[in-house]
Amino acid sequence: MTIHIGAKPGEIADTVLMPGDPMRAKWVAETFLEDARQVNEVRGMLGFTGTWHGHRVSVQGSGMGMASLSIYANELIRDYDATTLIRIGSCGGMQPHVALRDVVLAATASSISTPSSTILREVNYAPCADFGLLRDAAARADAMDVPTHVGGIYSSDTFYDERPDLNAEMVRHGILAVEMEAAELYTVAARHGARALAVLTVSDHLETGEALSSADRERSFSDMIEIALSAAFGS
Ligand SMILES: O=P(O)(O)O[C@H]1O[C@H](CO)[C@@H](O)[C@H]1O
Ligand SMILES: O=c1cc[nH]c(=O)[nH]1
């Protein structure tokens, strides 16, 4: 047990999917896993462990924002020996060719700062995905014929930001989408020798103002989860 995760030693798998929303963790466990069992409920940040096609896998909510995700990523890797962490999240599209429901595989995640900036100090560290996971996710998305984009995303500290100039610069520099966790996930994973990837679904678009209905979200999230699980186990 850790301060934020109540699972006993051995109750969390080497591979952990990390949605921001703990209720998405429950839905993933109920929908995709066999023999899923709840292993965490501390602070309502639900976590489950089960199997997918015979592979042991956990799903642990991360909460919203890098400060929250950092706590769970650190404890999963350092205290539970997790070796593969895959974020499964929603994101806001930033480019005209990135449409609602599309999947975004974050090769890199830019940010103004992450909780790790206190360690990295003056260095503009470039958080990046594990190449093997990224390659396998892209191949699986291709095989499933899911419209998918691979490239840079922006991990924001705020959902309601008041910096239209910053969004404009992200768009101008080719950033595909915005979310709030991946940069810290990649940084913590790199620090501890773990593999990480963010597989995201475009739930709304910053330029057009479009947003998915909740029914559409569920259907689109299914593709993202299938891609994440396949990449995790190289299948
Ligand atoms: O859908 P999730 O995984 O929560 O991800 C996105 O949604 C939340 C904001 O609504 C932030 O956590 C952002 O990163
Ligand atoms: O952080 C996020 C997540 C989804 N959509 C956004 O616009 N921002």
How would you characterize this protein structure?
With 235 residues, the chain is α/β, with parallel strands linked by helices. It has one domain: Rossmann fold (3-Layer(aba) Sandwich), CATH 3.40.50. Helices cover 34% and strands 27% of the residues. It has seven helices and nine strands, in the order βαβββαββααβαβαβα. The chain has helices at residues 22-32, 66-78, 117-120, 131-144, 164-172, 182-191, 214-232; strands at residues 15-18, 34-40, 47-52, 55-60, 84-93, 103-110, 148-155, 177-179, 195-205. It has a five-stranded mixed barrel. Strand 3 and strand 4 form a beta hairpin. It is globular and about 45 Å long. 1-O-phosphono-alpha-D-ribofuranose binds at residues 19-21, 64, 89-90, 159, 179-181. It catalyses: a purine 2'-deoxy-D-ribonucleoside + phosphate = a purine nucleobase + 2-deoxy-alpha-D-ribose 1-phosphate; uridine + phosphate = alpha-D-ribose 1-phosphate + uracil; a purine D-ribonucleoside + phosphate = a purine nucleobase + alpha-D-ribose 1-phosphate.
